[in-house]
Amino acid sequence: MAASSSTTTTGGHYMFLVALSLLSFAAYGQLSEQFYAAKCPSLDQIIKAEVDRTLSVDRRMGASLLRLFFHDCFVQGCDASVLLDDDAAKSITSEKTAGPNDKSLRGFDVIDRIKDQVEAACGVPGARVGVVSCADILALVTKQAVIYLAGQPGWAGWSLLLGRRDSTTANKDEANTVLPSPNSELPTLIEAFKNKNFTGRELVALSGAHTIGVAQCGNVDETQRQKCIDANNNNTFPLDDETPVDFDKGYYDNLLRDKGLLHSDRVLVDSNDLKLLVLQYARRKDLFFKDFANAMEKMSLMSVLTGTNGEIRLNCSRVNY
Asked: Which of 37, 89, 158, 296 has the most CB atoms in a 10 Å sphere around its CB?
């Protein structure tokens, strides 16, 4: 009986995974790189022009946009839930005030500005729904920001399917629990990424996003905190203090020189397997770019809404209904 029960349980779990995979494939099947080719043919040009203009004035915004995308996708999927404001009348509690996000996420104004331009160019005057989803705009803006900061001719980032729809809910509780902390130990990091279906290799590649941006001194590892305090720069310090606004392999060089700023970065070299990846990325920027792009493409497809699920918001900070 025990053997029969085990077989039944295993079989049921397998069928569940198969069903889940079929649902995922169905969702991805509704996405396409050309999704807006007819609806909004100027979309790519608008995104590139406004992102490039923004970063020409404030290069650090590129890191903020990348972080905004990560914090969106890790919480109930890439659905622009992170962009929603509090709305008690509609039972929405914003993710913006969750612990990992509060007073540290930036870039909302950039997304809103680009959304307005896109709807002005492609939308229908007086319409109550949008043409291009906020989730897709955030994904496109993030990709262009990384390409701009990489400054590598011919590198086109990653393949990006379009057709995501926007959530009608936010999940502050999930934002408070699933987003990795800058103080995370390695087992916690591995588990957090594994729960989102990422491998150890993808964890190390995605961590390379910390080659740009800054950290608050309060979040800096105690071994590095003094240099943050000494800098006295609005209580922040660059994650890579040599090329802080260039998307490159400097992050991995710093880890090997014991200059990793966050504890959650420094622990990557505590594992021989992960340290080997750090060494490989430090030696070969092309390999880092390739693996980062693959991991970003995978992340961009996390629990996306398609078809009749969700909506296409007219305003990214509030739902349509």
From this structure: 296
Q: What are phi and psi of 237, to 5 degrees?
A: -150, 145
> Model-level pTM?
0.90
Q: Is 71 a catalytic residue?
A: yes
How far, in Å, CA of 296 to CA of 142, rounded?
A: 10
Render pLDDT for 193-215 as a digit per residue (tens, 0 to 9).
Answer: 999 999 999 999 999 999 999 99
Q: Which entry of 13, 71, 210, 263 is annotated as an active-site residue?
A: 71
Reply yes or no on whether the pLDDT at 235 is more than 90: no
| Cβ atoms of 212 and 63 closer than 8 Å | yes
HEC profile of the chain:
CHHHHHHHHHHHHHHHHHHHHHHHHHHHHCCECCCCCCCCCCHHHHHHHHHHHHHHHCCCHHHHHHHHHHHHHCCCCCCCHHHCCCEHHHCECCHHHCCCCCCCCCCHHHHHHHHHHHHHHHCCCCCCCCCCCHHHHHHHHHHHHHHHHHCCCCCCCCCCCECCEECCCCCHHHHHHHCCCCCCCHHHHHHHHHCCCCCHHHHHHHHHHHHCCEEEHHHCCCCCHHHHHHHCCCCEEECCCCCCCCCCCHHHHHHHCCCCCCHHHHHHHHCHHHHHHHHHHHHCHHHHHHHHHHHHHHHCCCCCECCCCCECCCECCECCC
Note the pLDDT of residue 51.
98
CA distance 306 to 226: 48
| Cα distance between residue 178 and residue 44, in whole Å | 32
For 91-131, how does the pLDDT look when each residue is reduced to its tens digit (9 = 90+)? 999 999 999 999 899 999 999 999 999 999 999 988 999 99
